[in-house]
Specification:
2 copies of one chain form a homodimer.
Chain A lengths: L2 E5 L5 H10 L3 E5 L3 H11 L2 E2 L3 H5 L4 E4 L4 H9 L13 E4 L5 H13 L3 E4 L2 E2 L1 H7 L2 E6 L2 H11 L3 E8 L3 H29 L4 H8 L7 H12 L8 H18 L4 H15 L12 H4 L1
Parallel strand pairs in A: 1-2, 1-4, 2-3, 4-5, 5-6, 8-9
Antiparallel strand pairs in A: 7-8
Helix pairs in contact in A: 1-6, 8-10, 8-11, 8-12, 11-12
């Protein structure tokens, strides 16, 4: 069993840290809002620390799941950041979805200090974190991956090493590009079905085993028809991810005409007050 | 066992008619190019007729799978069409993908003559027709549906009565709208992955069980990566279907921003000489 620090106890981080504690690791947590860290310790044991550096002190692994690029920089290279406290040979695993460039920049900073660094964004949402069934897309060194993999098994269903530093982030971007096209197609299709006077559930039933099938159709079409969006992966987070995707695509020269358009459609949903709703709320542009 | 006429022995119609003959029905076929009808009879028994009317004479059911609106009008209400020859109480089942309005128009013409008419477009492609595993989306009268359903089981995996006349066509349109968004998203995603230097197969492997999953990802991503498109449902047919979709959407007032864009992208693929290639060749716009 390892000594582990976990930075960031949001809807994803809190259950992930819980799975590590349940697996028998010694877990010390840090959260910007201290009360959340205290509550986590009251429920799961372990200890909490007031800064990322103090949490990381003496640990074999530091896991992290925070908001975005700037939060990640703060908990790693900020004045109280983990990188200043971590021992040589210890390993930082970042589960935050950030730009591939920030991942590579922090990997280089870590390497200069003799620390390992893996970018390891996840998919599977809050439910996946709670059930321990996340998909983890990892970028970085193969030896470091071998060290972290058995620990991450505590909350993963699938873990893949995708290539050098940044490749985890790039893989997550591919995932979000697929979702953008699928959810928009499904929104247009369900709105068309309802406007045409069809029973959209009967339509999904008959087409859901063929070439139009998708996870989104199986898991979201019924709630889209009902106009229920108070769950799942929020539009605000999707827009953050699509912003990273479009920046990277511009950098490498990959055209994303529909992804760019869907990003704008999600901006419409935000304007309608849907920023905290599930990504399937894209259909609201058609149906209010 | 029933007396059946089958009109149109293309890549879909020929195997569908074969399944009816194998099921023990007495099948008489018609095809515009007579040599195909002669060959079909040589291989499958039964008989062929030189006109749709002569094929339909004395039959309980007339099934049909031709090219588009005008072909369908010709074999039904044209001078040698089936409607002039069909007995009262017999049933015409149209498997062609046409506009919902043509379906409704022909249903009304049939009804005036005491003939039943179902619109019953299919999905599942040539493979589905050959394996007898098509999905059939039916519009029309429930009693007529009950008569036709057991006969269509010969080549179907799924059969749904979707509503009144035209509803089968509308359901097929919903199917094609979903596919347009999915295939474009997948094309952008795979091109992004390859441009970013990722191994696209490894990426698909890791993301293919989550929210980005689709039938298209499972069945087409590998061939898209290899640039193989000489199979499956052709771009020319997809453009025909999307033309019907966009006309109907304009009529009923359902916005289809991404479907309309993807239709234009398929026009690009046609210009590149890809009209006969599988719909997954949409990725060629990015990769040539």
């Amino acid at each position: 069993m390892a000594k582990i620090a976990f930075l960031g106890l949001g809807v994803m981080g809190a259950p992930m840290a819980r799975h590590l504690a349940k697996a028998g690791h010694e877990v010390r947590v840090y959260n910007r809002t201290t009360s959340k860290a205290e509550r986590w310790v009251a429920e799961n044991g372990g200890a909490w620390a007031p800064t990322p550096g103090q949490a990381a002190q003496g640990c074999d692994f530091v896991f992290c799941c925070v908001g975005a690029d700037n939060d990640l920089r703060e908990v790693t290279i900020g004045p109280d950041g983990a990188f200043h406290a971590m021992a040589e040979g210890s390993l930082f695993v970042d589960h935050t979805t950030v730009s591939a460039q920030v991942s590579r920049e922090l990997e280089a900073e870590a390497r200069a200090k003799g620390i390992g660094f893996l970018d390891a964004p996840v998919s599977g949402g809050q439910a996946g974190a709670e059930n321990g069934k996340l998909t983890i897309m990892v970028g970085g060194d193969a030896e470091q991956f071998k060290q972290a993999e058995p620990v991450m098994q505590a909350y993963a269903q699938r873990i893949g090493l995708m290539g050098p530093s940044g490749s985890g982030q790039l893989t997550k971007m591919v995932n979000q590009i697929c979702i953008a096209g699928i959810v928009q197609g499904l929104s247009e299709a369900l709105n068309f079905a309802m406007t045409a006077g069809l029973d959209p559930r009967a339509v999904v039933e008959v087409i859901s085993k063929g070439a139009a099938q998708s996870w989104q159709m199986e898991n979201r079409s019924s709630t889209m028809v009902d106009g229920q969006f108070d769950f799942g992966f929020a539009v605000d987070w999707m827009r953050k991810d699509l912003g990273l995707v479009l920046d990277e695509a511009r950098r490498i020269g990959a055209p994303l005409p529909v992804t760019a358009l869907v990003d704008q459609f999600y901006a419409d949903v935000q304007k309608m007050g849907g920023g905290r709703q599930d990504t399937s709320s894209l259909i609201r542009r058609f149906r209010g």
